[in-house]
Automatic annotation (TrEMBL), chain A:
Belongs to the complex I subunit 4 family. The gene is ND4. Core subunit of the mitochondrial membrane respiratory chain NADH dehydrogenase (Complex I) that is believed to belong to the minimal assembly required for catalysis. Complex I functions in the transfer of electrons from NADH to the respiratory chain. The immediate electron acceptor for the enzyme is believed to be ubiquinone. Core subunit of the mitochondrial membrane respiratory chain NADH dehydrogenase (Complex I) which catalyzes electron transfer from NADH through the respiratory chain, using ubiquinone as an electron acceptor. Essential for the catalytic activity and assembly of complex I. Residues 103-390 form the NADH:quinone oxidoreductase/Mrp antiporter transmembrane domain. InterPro entries: NADH4_N, NADH_UbQ_OxRdtase, ND/Mrp_TM. This is NADH-ubiquinone oxidoreductase chain 4. It comes from Chionoecetes opilio (Atlantic snow crab). It is a multi-pass membrane protein. It catalyses: a ubiquinone + NADH + 5 H(+)(in) = a ubiquinol + NAD(+) + 4 H(+)(out). The chain crosses the membrane at residues 12-34, 40-70, 82-101, 107-129, 136-158, 178-204, 216-240, 246-265, 272-295, 301-322, 329-349, 381-402, 422-448. Keywords: Electron transport, Membrane, Mitochondrion, NAD, Respiratory chain, Translocase, Transmembrane, Transmembrane helix, Transport, Ubiquinone.
From TrEMBL, chain B:
GO terms for molecular function: oxidoreductase activity. Pfam families: DAO. This is FAD-dependent oxidoreductase domain-containing protein 1. Residues 243-252 have a biased composition (Low complexity). Residues 232-252 are annotated as: Disordered. It comes from Chionoecetes opilio. Keywords: Oxidoreductase. Required for the assembly of the mitochondrial membrane respiratory chain NADH dehydrogenase (Complex I). Involved in mid-late stages of complex I assembly. One of its GO terms (cellular component) is mitochondrion. GO terms for biological process: mitochondrial respiratory chain complex I assembly. PANTHER family: FAD-DEPENDENT OXIDOREDUCTASE DOMAIN-CONTAINING PROTEIN 1 (PTHR13847:SF287), SARCOSINE DEHYDROGENASE-RELATED (PTHR13847). The gene is foxred1_2.
C-alpha cells in the first residue's frame, strides 16, 4: 500500500503545478489498475494496511474520481483562487480515503473515516460559491460526528470483547442479549448517516449544492461509499443482530427512496436534483448491504461504483452549464441541445446510466440488488417498482427539461465544450459502460471474505 | 439561487464575525436562539435575473417574472432612488390609449388596460389593502386636418381590426358630441376611444406592482449601478457589422457581474445570469457601462435612449369643460385632460419641437412655454379656457428613443444575456404591464410570444430602420 500512498504524499510537494499533479494522479490510478488481477485474499499488507476485493474497487474508484476532480477544477486555477491549497486539500482527502479503504484495523479505519471529514469541510467552506455553505458545512459535519461518536464507543467495546480489532481476525458476535441491539445500532448509525439513509439525509442536498464542483464530485463519487464500505466491514461482526433488524433498513430504504425520488421531481436547482437522486440510489444500496447476502453485497458494490461515476459526471455537467449560463436554475438552462449540442451526448449517456438502463454498471448492480431484496420477501416488489419507476421519471425529467425546448431567440451558440471537458466526461462514462464487460472485477467472488455464517 | 450575504472580504472573516455574534448574544440565551439570531440580514450576492431600474417597466418585469416562476427564479431589482424623485413613472400624466399607428403598440396598450382593470385582484397582497389604480376610462380624442385625414383613416382601420373600441367622428358629430369645443374648417375628422382609454394613477400601479413583486420574493436594492463585467463567450459565436467595405466581427459576450454603489458610498457586487435594462431615461448610461457606444462594430451603437424634459402644467379653468371631457390630443401635439381629483383643474402639456428641446440637466420648469406654445392652442380649441390660471407645474423625463421614439425590446446581439426594455418615450407607463410580460417571456421562453414584438428588437437600431409612429397632422 505504501507504493500508492508515498507517491501521493510526494505529489503534494508539487501542489502549485497543476499539470504535474493531474498527470501524477492518472499515473497512480494506472498503477492501482495494474493490481486488478489480484488473487490473494489480502495483499499489499503492511503498516496495518491491506487490500482485498472490496477495498481495491473503492481505492481504484477514489483515485480515478480524484484525478477527474482535479481536471474539472480548472476554474480555480484561472481565477487564482488559492489553487495550490486547493490541490493540497484534495490530495490530503485522497490520502485519507486511501487509508480508510485499505486499513485492516477498525480503529485505524475509524480515525481515517473521521479524518476525511476535515478536508471535505475545508473544500466546501473555502471554495464554495454561496454563503449558505456555512450551514451546509455545519450540517455535514455535525450529522456525521453526532452519529459516529457511538461508533467509537462500540469499537472500543468490541476491542474489549474480542481482544483485537483487526478485520481479518474478527468473528461475528453471538447475539445473546437484547442490549446488543443497542450496540448494533450504535455502530451502524454512523455509516447509515454517511450513506445516507432517508431520514438522516438532510445534510446531503445542502452539502452537494453548496460545494464547489470538486467537492460535489468527490462527495457523490467516493465519500458516500465510505458509508457503504464501512457497513460491509462492520456487519461481519454484527451479522446476527443484522438479521433481526433487516426489516427496518429495508422499509426505510425502499419507502424513503421512493419519497426522495418524488422530491427530485420538484427540484429547480440542477445540483439539488442530482443530490436527491444520490440519496435514492444509496437507499437501494442500503437494502442490499443490510441483507448481507452474496447477491446483495455484490450488487451494492457494483451500484456504488456505477453511481459514483454517474453522479460525479452529472455534477460535472451541471457545473459546465453553470460556468456558461451563470445560473443553476432549470428554468434558465433549457434547450441545451441547441446551445451545446455535443454536450447533449454526455448528458444522454450519463442520464441513461443514472436510471440504470443497459448496458451500464448501474443496471448490473440493480439487478443484483433486486434479486437479493425480493428473495427476502416478495412484498418488497411494490417498493422496488416505485423506486425504479420514479428513478426513471426524474432522470427523464432532468434530461428533457435541460436539453429540449427553445433556447433564446437568435442564432446564438457558445462553446459547446472544450476538449478537456469532453475528456473528463469520457473518462466518467467509459468505466460505466465498458467495465460491464469485465464485471468480474467488481463482483465479489469469494465467500470467505464475507465470513458469512450459514443462516 | 438567491443567496444573501452580509458582505465579507473572506471566508475567515465571515466565520469570525459569525462566532463573535454568537458570543455577543450572551450566555443566558439558549444555544438555539443564539444560532437563530446570529445571522445578520443580508445583501444578495448572486441572483438569476438582475433588473436595472425599479420604475414601472422594472417593477412590472419583476412582478411578471415572479408570477411565472415563483421561487424557481431569484429576481433582484436595482433602484437607485427608492423615493422615485426623478423617475418618469410617477411624474407622468399616465394616460392610456389604444390609438397608435404601429399595431404592436395598440396591442401592448390593450393588455395594459386589461391589467389595470384587474389590478386590484392581480396585485393584491395578503394582509394589505388591494391597490386602487383609479382608472378613468374617459377616452382619447384625436383630431386631424385634411392633410392628415388619410393617415388617420389608415390608423382607424388598423385599430378596429385589432379590436380596439374607437369611433370615427365627422365634424358634425364632433360638434354634437363635444359642444364645448370649437372646430374650425381646418378640422376634417376625429377619432375617439369609446372604451379602454383614459388615465389612471401611476403611483398606485407602481407601488402595487412593486409590493406584489416583493411579496412574491423579488428583492429591491437601493443602489446605483456603477459597473458591468463580462466574459468572452467563445470563438464560435460572432456578430458582424459592415460599414462600407469594412466588416468588424465581435465575439459574443455574456455579462457576469454588476458593481453597484449604495447611498452611503459603499460598493457591492452581485453576479447574475440575465440582465434586464429597464432604467428608463438613464438606459443609455447603463448601456455605456457595458461598453455600448464606445466600442467597435456593433458595440459602437449605444442604446439610443436619453432623458428629455417635458413640462406639465395644472390650470384652473372655472368654466372649463369638466363633465365628459376626454383626453384631448390636438394635431399640433398639444393635449389636455381634466384632473379627476380636483374639480375644474386641467393638466396641459405639449411635446416641443426638436429645435426647442429644453435642457434636461434638471427638472426646472419653463413657465413661458405654456404661455407661448400651449395656451393659445387651448383657447382656440375651447374658448372657455380663456380665463384659466396656471396653478402649478412640474417636469418629468421621457426615456426618449432618439431613433424612433418607440420601445426597444429584446436581447442585445453581442451581450447575449442583456435584455433591453426601454425607449418608450412617453407612452411607457401605459405599456409597462405588457412590456413587463414581454420581458418575462424573453427571459424564460426566449422570445415574447403573447404579442410578437420582434419588430422592436435591437436590430433595428443597428440597421437604422426606424419604426416610427405616424403622427396624425
Amino acid at each position: 500500500m505504501l507504493k500508492l500512498i508515498l507517491p501521493l504524499v510526494m505529489l503534494m510537494k508539487y501542489m502549485k503545478v497543476c499539470s504535474v499533479v493531474q498527470i501524477g494522479l492518472l499515473i497512480v490510478s494506472f498503477m492501482v489498475g495494474l493490481m486488478s488481477y489480484h488473487d490473494f485474499y489480502f495483499y499489499g499488507i503492511g503498516f496495518s494496511l491491506g487490500i482485498d476485493s472490496v477495498s481495491y474497487i473503492m481505492i481504484l474508484l477514489s483515485v480515478w474520481i480524484m484525478s477527474l476532480v482535479l481536471m474539472a477544477s480548472q476554474k480555480v486555477k484561472y481565477s487564482k483562487n488559492f489553487y495550490g491549497s486547493f490541490i493540497g486539500v484534495n490530495l490530503l482527502l485522497l490520502i485519507c480515503l486511501l487509508i480508510t479503504f485499505s486499513s485492516m484495523e477498525y480503529m485505524l479505519f475509524y480515525i481515517s473515516f473521521e479524518m476525511s471529514l476535515i478536508p471535505t469541510l475545508i473544500l466546501i467552506l473555502g471554495w464554495g460559491y454561496q454563503p449558505e455553505r456555512i450551514q451546509a458545512g455545519i450540517y455535514m459535519l455535525f450529522y456525521t460526528l453526532l452519529f459516529s461518536l457511538p461508533l467509537l464507543g462500540s469499537l472500543l467495546l468490541a476491542l474489549n470483547k474480542s481482544g483485537s480489532l483487526v478485520i481479518l481476525l474478527s468473528q461475528p458476535f453471538i447475539y445473546d442479549s437484547y442490549l446488543m441491539m443497542i450496540w448494533y445500532f450504535a455502530t451502524v448509525m454512523a455509516f447509515v448517516v454517511k450513506l445516507p439513509m432517508y431520514m438522516l439525509h438532510l445534510w446531503l442536498p445542502k452539502a452537494h449544492v453548496e460545494a464547489p464542483v470538486a467537492g460535489s464530485m468527490i462527495l457523490a463519487g467516493v465519500l458516500l461509499k465510505l458509508g457503504g464500505y464501512g457497513l460491509i466491514r462492520v456487519l461481519i461482526l454484527f451479522q446476527f443482530m443484522g438479521k433481526e433488524s433487516y426489516w427496518v433498513w429495508l422499509s426505510l430504504g425502499l419507502v424513503g427512496g421512493s419519497l426522495v425520488s418524488l422530491m427530485c421531481l420538484r427540484q429547480v436547482d440542477m445540483k439539488a436534483l442530482i443530490a436527491y437522486s444520490s440519496v435514492a440510489h444509496m437507499s437501494l444500496v442500503l437494502c442490499g448491504i443490510m441483507g448481507f447476502s452474496w447477491w446483495g453485497l455484490s450488487g451494492a458494490v457494483v451500484v456504488m461504483v456505477g453511481h459514483g461515476l454517474c453522479s460525479s459526471g452529472l455534477f460535472c455537467l451541471a457545473n459546465i452549464v453553470y460556468e456558461r449560463l451563470g445560473s443553476r436554475s432549470l428554468l434558465m438552462s433549457k434547450g441545451l441541445l441547441s446551445f451545446m449540442p455535443s454536450m447533449g451526448l454526455w448528458w444522454f449517456l450519463l442520464s441513461v446510466s443514472n436510471m440504470a438502463s443497459p448496458p451500464s454498471l448501474n443496471l448490473l448492480g440493480e439487478i443484483n440488488l433486486i434479486i437479493s431484496v425480493v428473495s427476502w420477501s416478495k412484498l418488497t416488489m411494490f417498493g422496488l417498482v416505485s423506486l425504479s419507476f420514479l428513478s426513471a421519471s426524474y432522470t427523464l425529467y432532468m434530461y428533457s427539461l435541460t436539453q429540449h425546448g427553445l433556447f433564446f431567440n437568435s442564432l446564438y451558440s457558445c462553446c459547446s465544450g472544450k476538449v478537456q471537458e469532453y475528456m473528463i466526461l469520457f473518462l466518467h462514462w467509459m468505466p460505466l459502460n465498458v467495465l460491464l464487460l469485465n464485471s468480474n472485477l467488481l463482483l465479489i467472488s469469494s465467500l470467505i471474505k464475507m465470513k458469512c455464517v450459514k443462516r | 439561487m438567491l443567496s444573501f450575504y452580509h458582505y465579507y472580504p473572506s471566508t475567515l472573516q465571515m466565520l469570525r464575525t459569525q462566532v463573535s455574534l454568537l458570543r455577543r448574544a450572551g450566555p443566558g440565551v439558549s444555544v438555539l436562539r443564539r444560532l437563530a439570531s446570529a445571522s445578520p440580514c443580508a445583501w444578495p450576492r448572486s441572483c438569476d435575473v438582475l433588473v436595472v431600474g425599479g420604475g414601472a417597466v422594472g417593477s412590472s418585469s419583476a412582478y411578471h417574472l415572479k408570477q411565472r416562476a415563483g421561487r424557481d427564479l431569484s429576481v433582484v431589482v436595482l433602484e437607485q432612488d427608492p423615493t422615485y424623485e426623478r423617475a418618469s413613472t410617477v411624474l407622468s400624466l399616465s394616460n392610456i390609449r389604444q390609438q397608435f399607428s404601429v399595431a404592436e403598440n395598440t396591442l401592448l396598450s390593450m393588455y395594459g388596460v386589461t391589467f389595470l382593470r384587474r389590478a386590484s385582484e392581480l396585485l393584491a397582497v395578503e394582509g394589505q389593502d388591494p391597490p386602487d389604480v383609479s382608472f378613468f376610462p374617459r377616452g382619447y380624442l384625436f383630431v386631424a386636418t385634411p392633410e392628415g385625414l388619410h393617415q388617420m383613416e389608415e390608423n382607424y382601420k388598423q385599430q378596429t381590426s385589432l379590436g380596439a373600441e374607437v369611433a370615427w367622428l365627422w365634424p358634425e358629430q364632433l360638434r354634437q358630441w363635444y359642444p364645448w369645443l370649437t372646430f374650425g374648417e381646418n378640422i376634417a375628422a376625429g377619432v375617439v376611444g369609446t372604451n379602454n382609454e383614459g388615465w389612471f394613477d401611476p403611483w398606485s400601479l407602481l407601488l402595487g406592482m412593486r409590493r406584489k413583486a416583493e411579496s412574491l420574493g423579488a428583492v429591491y436594492l437601493p443602489a446605483k449601478l456603477t459597473g458591468l463585467e463580462y466574459q468572452q463567450e467563445s470563438n464560435e459565436g460572432h456578430r458582424a457589422t459592415t460599414d462600407g467595405d469594412q466588416t468588424t466581427t465581435t465575439p459574443t459576450r455574456s455579462l457576469t457581474t454588476a458593481q453597484m454603489r449604495l447611498r452611503n458610498g459603499e460598493e457591492r457586487e452581485i453576479s447574475f445570469s440575465k440582465l434586464v435594462v429597464a432604467a428608463g431615461a438613464w438606459s443609455g448610461e447603463v448601456g455605456r457601462l457595458a461598453g455600448l457606444g464606445t466600442g467597435e462594430g456593433i458595440l459602437a451603437s449605444p442604446i439610443p435612449v436619453e432623458p428629455r424634459k417635458r413640462f406639465v402644467y395644472t390650470a384652473h379653468a372655472p368654466e372649463g369643460p369638466w363633465e365628459g371631457c376626454p383626453v384631448y390630443n390636438d394635431y399640433t401635439g398639444m393635449y389636455f385632460r381634466p384632473d379627476s381629483s380636483n374639480p375644474q383643474h386641467f393638466f396641459c402639456a405639449r411635446s416641443p419641437l426638436e429645435e426647442e428641446e429644453p435642457d434636461a440637466s434638471d427638472l426646472s420648469v419653463d413657465h413661458s412655454f405654456f404661455d407661448t406654445h400651449i395656451w393659445p392652442l387651448m383657447v382656440e380649441r375651447c374658448p372657455a379656457f380663456g380665463n384659466l390660471k396656471v396653478k402649478s407645474s412640474w417636469a418629468g423625463y421621457y426615456d426618449y428613443n432618439t431613433l424612433d421614439q418607440n420601445l426597444i425590446l429584446g436581447f442585445h446581439p453581442v451581450y447575449t444575456n442583456m435584455c433591453i426594455a426601454t425607449g418608450l418615450s412617453g407612452h411607457g407607463i401605459q405599456q409597462s404591464p405588457a412590456v413587463g410580460r414581454a420581458v418575462m417571456e424573453c427571459v424564460v421562453d426566449g422570445r415574447s410570444h403573447s404579442i410578437n414584438l420582434d419588430r422592436f428588437g435591437f436590430g433595428r437600431i443597428l440597421t437604422r430602420q426606424p419604426l416610427k409612429e405616424k403622427m396624425v397632422m
